[in-house]
Specification:
Layout (H helix, E strand, L loop, with lengths): L2 E2 L4 H6 L4 E2 L3 E6 L5 H12 L6 E5 L5 H8 L14 E5 L1 H7 L1 H15 L3 E5 L2 H6 L3 H18 L2 E6 L3 H6 L1 H5 L2 E8 L6 E9 L9 E6 L2 E6 L2
Length: 223
């Protein structure tokens, strides 16, 4: 099976070479567990040559606000922004025109950029805005079909606890689930990563400890 490198050696080793190409991955965890940092690190380290990486936001935040906090990391390369790393907002269309028009907008981005990897931050916003559970399930299924058809590897960010993951429809369509979590202690926060599911690859499914520095996610330790 072809793999897509995460750009992080230790994480690739945990995943037995990287993410399965063309798969849909749910990158989940509570707020402040490192999801956005990991996503940006993967994004910039995969944006090489003619490969386009698409980062779709659903929160309606200005691009400059998202960039502001990520610019502090060494992996952030301003030369790649809006060239090989493309930021686009879905929030306005989702709130004003609904899920059908949002899917059409995603289609147009896929046609225009033909990305190697697409990030959606966050998938939970869709669940919050689409109140009917059946409509949301249909939306998630339609989104999955579109992304699979285009063959791009997809990372869905979601602010979920481990219990939430067990009951979310996003988990059902995901080929893999990477869960980030941590413990709050007086001296420092301890951060952990577990691969809860990864179809088509022999992955390490135990607990991995990691730190976040100015270089992003580093010092991943696992047994």
């Amino acid at each position: 099976m072809d793999k897509v490198s995460t750009g992080i050696l230790a994480l690739d080793q945990i995943l037995d070479g990287g993410l399965p190409k063309g798969s849909t991955i749910l990158l989940a965890g509570r707020p402040r567990t490192g999801k956005t940092i990991l996503a940006h690190q993967m994004m910039f380290q995969n944006a090489e040559n003619d490969d386009k990486i698409l980062y779709l936001t659903t929160l309606g935040e200005p691009q400059i606000k998202i960039m502001k906090f990520q610019q502090e990391f060494s992996f952030y390369d301003t030369e790649k922004v809006q060239k090989s790393v493309i930021y686009k907002d879905l929030g306005g269309v989702l709130r004003k025109q609904g899920s059908t028009q949002t899917l059409k907008l995603i289609d147009s981005f896929l046609k225009e950029y033909q990305p190697k990897i697409i990030f959606i931050d966050t998938i939970k916003t869709f669940a919050d805005i689409i109140p009917d559970s059946m409509e949301f399930r249909e939306f998630i299924f339609d989104l999955s079909v579109r992304l699979t058809t285009w063959g791009c590897t997809t990372i869905l960010l979601g602010e979920y606890s481990e219990h939430d993951i067990e009951i979310r429809p996003e988990s059902a369509i995901a080929d893999g689930i990477i869960y980030l979590y941590g413990t709050e202690e007086k001296s420092q926060q301890k951060r952990y990563l577990r691969v809860l599911k990864m179809r088509g690859t022999k992955h390490f499914n135990g607990e991995a400890f990691f730190k976040i520095s100015k270089d992003g996610m580093k010092k991943i330790l696992y047994k």
